[in-house]
DNA sequence: TTAGGGTTAG
């Protein structure tokens, strides 16, 4: 090890004597090392530059500062707490270099520092360097690109972003293509897609990047059909534009169109990137398209694509949502690197497939691996306890959220606790829990109680929960259906009628249920009462056969909301083919 | 010497 170090060091010295810039580049910028190794190299190079007297060269010094700052913006393995710590140390190092620099900073250095802080994001420091720049220099197109992206990533209020936008306008940089697209992105991030539209309209002939950013804005606003028009009119489309469109469909639940677009993308022979596959897998997960999902997985293997954390997580998600929890866990265990998303997806996959104890077991392992859980993880933990009927353990986990992990429980967690008590038949505890909540109970908490009342046939409490729920969310069709079912199960037909009347009076409509399956890559949708499928007659006959077989096997249908899962329907799908 | 758009979990 020693000999090796000595050799590389002397080699570097030789290079450095001739070209110190090459040393900085090759050791820092072009290397793929983690933050802690990078920090050690920074110290080495700093010492070297100092000893050689090279820091008197202002260009070189500035380049060194910029490299150190930008090194911290590389997100190589930033997943762990310790690497995050080293990234911060790199940033601090760049601050100190600037503070002790004998040369007045130029725009390049300050821009680089703003950029580095835009990635953390650390708005306070980004603006500190911006103000420093304003003192003696003029901000340029780079400054605004970085500052806008800092605001997009790190702003909780829109004020700072709007101020930067105003400054960019005043200085004539708002129509620079880079600043322009960053501004669109920023307003989308602020939840102001209409502001993004105004900015988009201000430029005569936007380039592909601004068009793609606008595509994202329209999808964010739910205007997916307008987005499609924009997409179709684009003079050229690169893989990122395709991804934006596919992701838009996927996020809005228009999975069928997402998959259709994916196949058009393929027929145009375009390169398929990780982002595309993640969106496609997410669309498959959403609609339970196991065959398509398997095809994507096979595609990845065929093309020897590396299963990154994101792709692996998307695969786990897809398999478990399609009901194939064995394959989901197989992918999970094979993954080299797992983050909190991966663990949470696997846990939720187990719990939605009824494996509460396994979900809790995985939670234990996750903690053993030193991955800190977050709020989403705890939703699965609490649901796991609910499924497994572990009331006290659930309570302990709930309390540990705040006490051990500093996570303030969300409405969802309170809802899970009500569900936990309610399912276990402890309706009084559920009510006490709601009454002792430090935040105003949301409709979901009362909904969980209502559901528990349905399971345990508690009519009076159910009526009360319903009343509370309607007070908060008067148009929640699910609540009416649940209460109606409570009455129906107790053969209180008058109550059923009352519910129907009050739904009519309040204008509440039951959304038609929809089921989607995929056979041989073709997507079939069925709405309640919908007879438009070309093979409707055959399907109806098959359903009768299936119900008969199920009854013979001892299955009795419960109530309407306990429908067949997509996975169960998919297992019958082959019979539809013939 | 520094840039912008798409991508995961309840």
UniProtKB/TrEMBL annotation:
NCBIfam families: PPR. It comes from Canna indica. It comes from the Eukaryota. Signal peptide: none annotated. The keyword Repeat applies. GO terms for molecular function: RNA binding. GO terms for biological process: RNA modification. The keyword Chaperone does not apply. This is Pentatricopeptide repeat-containing protein. Pfam families: E_motif (PF20431), Eplus_motif (PF20430), PPR (PF01535), PPR_2 (PF13041). Keywords: Repeat. InterPro entries: E2_motif, E_motif, PPR_At4g14850-like_plant, PPR_rpt, TPR-like_helical_dom_sf. PROSITE patterns: PPR. PPR repeats lie at residues 238-272, 339-373.
